[in-house]
Amino acid sequence: MSEITFLASSKPFIIMRDTLESESPLHQTNEEINEFWVSEVTFPEWRNSLKKVFSLPYIYEISTIQHNQFIHYIKTYLEDGDSVELAYFSNQHDLSHGVTRIIETSDPIIINLKSLVYQDRSGTYQMSTHNWIEELSHKLYVNEYSVTTIMKPFNG
Fold it and tell me: E strands along 105-146, which residues?
């Protein structure tokens, strides 16, 4: 089995590699930065399956989703009104089964970057203004049973 994670976004998702390297947290090496990538999903069967779980139009395969570099990137480049959705599948060769599982068990995770609220089936958690990146890095924000929505709404 090979796992795979997808990202859907409200607008084209482009990694600004040069800016990312200059703004990288000190504990990140260039090798770790280069592990963070996105690639547009062009395979028609995957796109059609993923459209059943995502509400956003631009769909990508993404690496290192549980990596602080991803959180840092989202913090830096997600603009007011933007959102991304994430879905993790433990077996890319049986994507349709994973899509069905997400639809049937729908256990969404919502992260609001404006109000710094993390919400899942366990409840709502207010993250600290000064330490939210560290807090979020310790949370399970992607799993096989949900679509995670990370948003930065215009109003809190």
Answer: 109-112, 117-120, 123-126
Residue pLDDT, tens place only, 94-107: 899 999 999 998 88
Surface-to-core class of residue 145, CB atoms within 10 Å of its CB (0-12 exposed, 13-18 middle, 19+ buried): middle
Structure tokens at 61: 């395969």
Structure tokens, 2: 């090979």
**C-alpha radius of gyration, the chain, whole number:** 15
- The pLDDT tens digits of the residues spanning 69-79 come to 788 788 888 89
CA distance 78 to 82: 6
Indicate if the alpha-carbon torsion angle 153, 115, 38, 51 is positive or negative. Answer: negative
Lowest average pLDDT, out of 12-26, 75-89, 113-127, goes to 12-26
pTM of the full structure: 0.85
Interacting residues of 100 by C-beta distance below 8 A, sequence separation 6+: none
Question: DSSP readout, 49-81?
Answer: HHTTT--SSEEEEES-TTSHHHHHHHHHHPPTT
Do 142 and 65 touch, CB atoms closer than 8 A?
Answer: yes
